[in-house]
Design a protein that fits this description.
Helix content: 25-40%
Shape: globular
Structural class: alpha+beta
Number of strands: 17
Number of helices: 12
CATH architecture of the largest domain: 3-Layer(aba) Sandwich
Order of helices and strands: HEEHEEEHEHHHEHEEEHEEEHEEHEHEH
Distance between the termini: 29 Å
CATH superfamily of the largest domain: Zn peptidases
Length: 426
C-alpha cells in the first residue's frame, strides 16, 4: 500500500478550511464548521469506497465493503477553540488515505479497513462522547446532563444538527479486531531527540475537580471589607494554598492545571456571590492521582466555612491511565525501522480516544513530531515530510497486520518483532 503524500496533504489542508482561524482552526464539536466538516468527510469516505454515515452522536463512520472483519483506524476532527489544524484530523485522514491505498492496491483479503472520526473528543459538551458511545459506555443520563459552557445542551445541539434519533454506530466484537490511531505528539520530545516517529506505550489518567465557592453578592463600593462574604476572594486564596500542595505531591511526570475560573456576576462593582475553578491533573499512576485528589479535597475542606463561604467539590471527569497493546506497538516500531527511522517509545500526556477503545480492543498509537512542541493553539504545525512519513509507516504496519503475518490470529497473537531493541528507548 503506497501512500499518496500529495493527496494526503491536500485533504488535510482542505479539512483545515472548515473553521479556518489564521494558521489554525476553530471547529468546536457541533459548531457550523464542525457539521460541514463531517458532511465533507462522509463524501470523502464514500469516494474512497467506504459505506459512510454520521450516527446519532455525531460519529462519522466509514465501513469497508465485502469483508466480515476489519481493522479500525481513526481519531477526531473537532478542535479546541482557536486550535491547530492537525490535532485529531491527522489520524482521521491517515485512516482515509490508508483505506484508499488498500483499495487502489487491488489486493483483497479477509480483513478490511474501517475508518472513524469520533465526536467531541475535545469535550465541548462531553469528553470523548463519540468513542464512549461507540464502545457502549455512555449513558442517556450523561447525554441529557451535558451542556456547552453551561447553556445549550448536547441533546438540543444534536437535534439542531439533525443527528438526533439516528442509530448509533457500535463497536462490533465479531468485526473489529484492533484499533490504530495516529496523532501529532503535542509536545517537544520527538523534536528534541531528533526522532521522526513515536510509538505510544500508554496514556495518562486524567481527572478534573470543579470547586464551587458560595458567598453573598454585595455592592463593591459600600460593603465594608470585614462584612463581605466574598466568594471570589475565597477562590483566589484557595488556589494560592493549593499550589504547594500539588507541587509536593505530583510525580516528576505528573501535571496539573487551573484551566477555568469564573466569578458570578463577574463585574467590577459587585462582590462575587459565587465562584468556581476547574482543576485538571494527570499522571500515569493511579496511586499518584489518588494522592493529588486527596490534597485537593483536603484544601477544599480547609476552605469550607472560612469567612462564611461554603466550598464544595464535584468530579466531572475521571479517566483511568491506559497501557496500549504491546504487540501492535511492536508492529508500528518495526514499520518505522523498515523506513530507516528508530522510533521513540513514549507515553502520551494527552488524552485520546484510544484510551477508551483500548478497554474493548487491542489498540496502539503513532506520533509524529510537533514543531516547537506546540498544540491546542493556532501555532500548531508539523513538517510535511514527517506527516507523510508517519502515514507510510502506519500503512506499512497495517499491510503486515492485514496480511496476517503474526504468530497468532490477526489482532491477537504476538508479532514477530520486538517492541524495542534498546532499553534506552523504553
Amino acid at each position: 500500500m503506497r501512500i499518496d503524500g500529495d493527496r494526503l496533504l491536500a485533504d488535510l489542508r482542505e479539512l483545515a478550511g472548515f473553521g479556518r482561524c489564521g494558521t489554525g482552526v476553530h471547529r468546536p464539536f457541533l459548531s457550523q464548521p464542525d457539521r460541514e466538516a463531517r458532511d465533507w468527510l462522509v463524501r470523502k469516505m464514500c469516494d474512497a469506497g467506504l459505506d459512510a454515515r454520521i450516527d446519532g452522536i455525531g460519529n462519522v463512520f466509514g465501513q469497508s465493503r465485502g469483508v466480515a472483519r476489519a481493522l479500525l483506524i481513526g481519531s477526531h476532527t473537532d478542535t479546541v477553540p482557536r486550535g491547530g489544524w492537525l490535532d485529531g484530523a491527522l489520524g482521521v485522514i491517515y485512516g482515509l488515505e490508508i483505506a484508499r491505498a488498500r483499495c487502489e492496491s487491488g489486493e483483497a483479503g479477509p480483513l478490511g479497513v474501517d475508518v472513524i472520526s469520533f465526536a467531541d473528543e475535545e469535550s465541548a459538551y462531553l469528553a470523548m462522547a463519540g468513542s464512549r458511545a461507540f464502545c457502549g459506555c455512555l449513558s442517556d443520563a450523561e447525554i441529557e446532563a451535558a451542556r456547552h459552557e453551561g447553556s445549550r445542551s448536547l441533546r438540543e445541539a444534536l437535534v439542531e444538527a439533525g443527528y438526533a434519533g439516528r442509530p448509533l454506530v457500535r463497536l462490533a466484537p465479531d468485526r473489529h479486531v484492533a484499533y490504530l490511531e495516529a496523532h501529532i505528539e503535542q509536545g517537544p520530545r520527538l523534536e528534541a531527540e531528533g526522532r521522526r516517529v513515536g510509538v505510544v506505550t500508554g496514556i495518562v489518567g486524567i481527572r478534573r475537580i470543579r470547586v464551587t465557592f458560595s458567598g453573598r453578592a454585595d455592592h463593591a463600593g459600600t460593603t465594608p471589607m470585614h462584612l463581605r462574604r466574598d466568594a471570589g476572594g475565597a477562590l483566589v486564596e484557595f488556589c494560592h494554598e493549593l499550589r504547594p500542595r500539588l507541587e509536593e505531591t505530583r510525580s516528576p511526570e505528573g501535571v496539573w492545571n487551573l484551566g477555568q475560573v469564573a466569578f458570578d456576576p463577574g463585574v467590577g462593582n459587585v462582590v462575587p456571590g459565587s465562584a468556581e475553578v476547574l482543576i485538571e491533573y494527570r499522571d500515569q499512576s493511579v496511586e499518584r492521582l489518588d494522592r493529588m485528589e486527596a490534597e485537593i479535597q483536603a484544601a477544599v475542606a480547609a476552605a469550607d466555612g472560612r469567612g462564611g463561604i461554603k466550598a464544595e467539590a464535584t468530579q466531572p471527569l475521571g479517566l483511568t491511565p491506559t497501557t496500549l497493546d504491546r504487540n501492535l506497538a511492536g508492529l508500528i516500531a518495526a514499520a518505522a525501522r523498515g523506513r530507516g527511522e528508530e522510533p521513540l517509545l513514549m507515553p502520551s500526556g494527552a488524552g485520546h480516544d484510544a484510551m477508551v477503545l483500548s478497554s474493548r480492543l487491542p489498540a496502539a498509537m503513532l506520533f509524529v513530531p510537533s514543531i516547537g512542541g506546540r498544540s491546542h493553539d493556532v501555532a500548531e504545525d508539523s513538517a510535511e515530510v514527517d506527516i507523510v512519513l508517519g502515514a507510510q509507516v502506519m500503512a506499512d504496519a497495517v499491510r503486515v497486520f492485514l496480511d496476517g503475518k503474526l504468530r497468532g490470529k490477526p489482532g491477537g497473537g504476538e508479532f514477530c518483532v520486538p517492541v524495542a531493541e534498546s532499553p534506552a528507548d523504553s
